[in-house]
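Section: Multi-chain targets

For targets with more than one molecule, the full set of components is provided together so that the structure can be written out for the assembly as a whole rather than chain by chain. Components appear in the order listed by the source. The example entry contains two components.
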Amino acid sequence: MYPNNNVAPQNYYTPQPAYPVVTGQQQMLPANAAYTQQQQPKSANQFKPLSGRIVSNDSEITPNEVVMDGSVSFFPQTDYSCIYAKQWGQDGTIQTVRYVPDVPSVEEVSDTEKETIADSFSAIFERLDNIEGLIKRNNKPYYNKNRKPNHNHEKKESDNV
Amino acid sequence: MSNIMQMAMNLISRNPNIANNPQAQNLIQVIQNGNAEEGQKIAQNLCQTYGVSPEDAIKQAKQFFNIPQ
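Its structure, encoded as tokens over all components, is:
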């Protein structure tokens, strides 16, 4: 198939370099041209990670762990009972703010309120008992669908004719 | 000599680690203003925060800058 002992012709392709080659004194580009990397425009909402780590207590935090760029470093406690927020001050000291979770407290019901609630429920139960009694009285055999016919009543009618 | 000091201060101020650090900016301002009392107070606070005595801090600084003791 190939004229040269079935060996495919080899194309030697030399890709041109993407950058200019300066040979000696000759420059391909003007001197003030600069290859600057295209920088991504910084958006206003650029993600900035928080600094800090989980600690067992406040004394475990060393000054080196608090960043010095003016931002606050957060150190939650292992039991998540509080968070220490530390920031370097202008005077060379570290300001610490301790944040504690706000757990809503369950208000205890007083004894008088408990009695009022019990009285309300007892009135409701009394009415339910009354309703139950009415239902039971209305379910007498007199109103039973499967009741037997009253023969005494029929004989009287026949006697009158 | 003052030109060298000014040049050194300019170089330090241009360092991004210094430029982005509000605390370092305050220190440079204190140095430029020549406020020795404020500078000493800041240095003492830093030593106290790091748990280092001022004498040890000066000793370590001399070692760092290869200044004979």
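Helices of chain B lie at 2-14, 16-19, 22-33, 36-50, 54-64.
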